[in-house]
User: Fold RagB/SusD family nutrient uptake outer membrane protein from Persicobacter diffluens.
Amino acid sequence: MKTNKIIIGLLAIGTLFTGCAEDFLESKSTEYATEEVINDFARQDAEAAMGPLMEGVYSKLFEYRDSHDDFGLRAIMMASDVMTDDIALATSNWFIYDNQNMNKTQNYRRTRSTWGYTYEAIRGCNQVIVGLSGIEEADLTDAAKDLLGQAYAVRGMLYFNLINFYQLPYETAKDKPGVPIYTHEEELQGREPVSKVYDLIINDLETGYAYLEGLGMDQTKMNEYAAAGILARVLAFKTDHPNQWDEVAKYAAIAGSVGMMSSEELAAFRFNSINNKEVLFGAPIDGQTTTFYASFMSHMDPWGPGYAGALGCYKMIADDLYAEMSDSDVRKAWFAAEDTYVNPENKEESRVISKYTQIKKFVDVGGFQSDYIYLRASEFVLLEAEARYLSGDQSSARTLLNKLLANRYTDEYQSSNSGQALLDEIYFQKRVECWGEGVRLFDIKRRNETMDRNGTENHHSSAMVIPTIKGFDEQYIFQIPLVELDANTEIGPGDQNP
Assistant:
């Protein structure tokens, strides 16, 4: 075997390796253990040690930090949604600065939190990768492959989020400064070009997928289907990738292959559990891991005791998007068709939930113990449909679209559209299907669409809401947080984003 580099990773968790190795040697009756035995033990011990490190990474993804709109990845997904034209806020409360596109400047919490938690999670992935890198490929067990696959794929996902919050999309910014890259070194790094960051992202996701392929799906951790889905997202941005849309379709098809809810299942599902056939990756939340009021359901569920319920901080579908939905679409029942009394038996003392408020898609199981869903298969059925269309295969695109619609409409509606009308319908259905799931902003950015609130009446929580932003507009870039500029000598004031 190679010179064992496992020790590097194990140093990150103290003296665990040393203590176990000494116990092992003391248990032998022979005077010396062979190098083969020692290396085999070191491998087993490394796997045992890296598992908790990877669990720490996942914990970081739903960690409460310093405010009630700051609870890891799901908070950032929610913030990105309210930056678009699909979600309107009923009141000026948490997430209002994201809604106004103001929460991106260097001294604001959103950019500080996004940068900080992401690089902390990346550091954990690096420790797992380095900690297992001394094992020859032929000697990797399925457990070690699983851990390596998770670490590479999660790292790729995290860098993908970073590069698309802190710079314009690849198509227009591939030669511009991106974000620092850390893979193992601790020395401070400056901003690398966007193209180099994408090279790392794609390599990480391809490597991660290769390790995870065939190991099945555990929704509580990164798995082959989730890795394939994220890779499809990434390749949709990388406009100069060879056979771009064929490759997007390939990986989106893998992610979307796990199955789709029927219309009845969709109507009953409250997006509060990862135990659903469409969920690819998420976080199980229970009484030990809940962040209570600082949680997704606190801000989304209008029936519960959180911000959406007790304070009426409702999250509403934009009225123009709602108006486009067919009455036969079962998803329309996700939203209040009219003002709704919480207690209709006693209207005088009842709270009113406003028309267009989300009322059924996201409902807490109780006690803020709803799981977080990060990725879902239906997104990738629609991404594959888009990719098939853009690769010139309209027939396959329509078939994929109708596969989804067959499980979303009660009147057996099927699309017969072609050309631009077909592509527009795919885009519209994705906006409806993925409402509130942290998907819309990145689609706006990569397609250079216009986020347009001019046609809506319920984007009225503040006069400061920006009516239109183009996807390639610098208004959609976060500034590097001031704490990073102060601490990192490799990034100067002149390296700041607009």
Notes: The mean pLDDT is 91. Residues 35-61 form the longest helix (27 residues). Residues 285-353 form one domain.
